[in-house]
Amino acid sequence: MCGAGISTAAGIPDFRSPSAGLYFKLKKYDLPYPEAVFDGDYFRQNPLPFYSLCRELYPEVLTPTTTHKFFTLLRDKHLLRRVYTQNIDALEILGGLNKKEVIEAHGSFQRSYCTSQKCGKEYDLQWLKKEMFTPEKNDGVPKCEDCQSVVRPDIVLFGEQLPSRFHSSISSDFSACDLLIVLGTSLAVSPFNTLVGRTKPGVPRVYINKTKPGKVEGIVGWMLALSANVDFSRDEDLFLQGFCDDIVADICSAAGMSEELENIQVQSMK
Ligand code: OAD
Ligand code: ZN
């Protein structure tokens, strides 16, 4: 399981880190509250802050990190059942995993679609990027070529359903799981964070993160997180505190797999 912390080394800021996190950069957008920029209802009223932020943050080149390579190495060693990611950057795929090996719990920026229910025309990332970066043409918000409605990436905003594949895969994946590794996520967001409670009794859970788990959002989320024990205080849990790229490199070194890790071939995307 992973989150924004595995992509910060690729130049994408995370959400909740003090000063560097996205939610601390939003003052100028005059939002009612920082998370509004990723709120489905707010986006439908005013998609401009979302797209302004995307323009500001979009990295020139997207390149997978050492942690993404580590996932592919685990797959090559037949040790990987699945990666559950909250990230929308598709770096797991650029790092070498197949689509079926990844559950993009919060969707992906690779695909987008027209928000008119009558139309629903689909677009790819190249089209979205071109439209996003010609704000003078469309007032800063990409519009459908056929019906002029707002186009949005196929990501999950707050208040929206997670993909059905997320829900349908949990039960079999977690009953097969004999080691859960959780990297680069504050585990503040439900339902994703509740997955850490789905391991069978006695299954070790390893949390690799720069900081301790964050404050869980919402009262319902907090109650769910409590039962999932997102603070990793079970006897069989392990917390490895630090940068995930360094820690996975140390693990590979201890396992004699440093060279194989370095040799994993990745793709970059402009
Ligand atoms: P957060 O920003 O909440 O958490 C990122 C975590 O990664 C923090 O605990 C950081 O300390 C840690 N971190 C940052 N860089 C790191 C590094 N190089 N090595 C190790 N740890 C590092 O991001 P997420 O947990 O992914 O949802 O956030 C979850 C969801 O909240 C996102 O998917 C998004 C957001 O609102 C939606 O937009 C629906
Ligand atoms: Zn349309």
Mean pLDDT: 93
**Shape field:** globular
What structural class do you assign from the helix and strand content?
A: alpha/beta
In the CATH hierarchy, the architecture of the largest domain is: 3-Layer(aba) Sandwich
What's the story with the biggest beta sheet? 3 strands, antiparallel
Low-confidence stretches: none
Number of helices: 10
Bound molecules: 2'-O-acetyl adenosine-5-diphosphoribose, zinc ion
Number of domains: 2
Strand content: 5-15%
Give the spatial strand order of the biggest sheet.
Answer: 4-3-5
Number of strands: 8
**How large is the radius of gyration?**
19 Å
General description of the model:
With 270 residues, the chain is an alpha/beta fold. The chain has two domains: 61-106 and 164-262, TPP-binding domain (Rossmann fold, 3-Layer(aba) Sandwich), CATH 3.40.50.1220; 109-154, SIR2/SIRT2 'Small Domain'. The chain contains ten helices and eight strands. It has a three-stranded antiparallel β-sheet with strand order 4-3-5. Strands 6-7-8 form a three-stranded parallel β-sheet, with no helix packed on it. Helix 4 (91-94) links the parallel strand 1 (83-85) and strand 2.
Structure characteristics:
three-stranded parallel beta sheet; 31% helix; SIR2/SIRT2 'Small Domain'; alpha/beta; binds 2'-O-acetyl adenosine-5-diphosphoribose; binds zinc ion; 10 helices; 270 residues; 13% strand; Rossmann fold; three-stranded antiparallel beta sheet
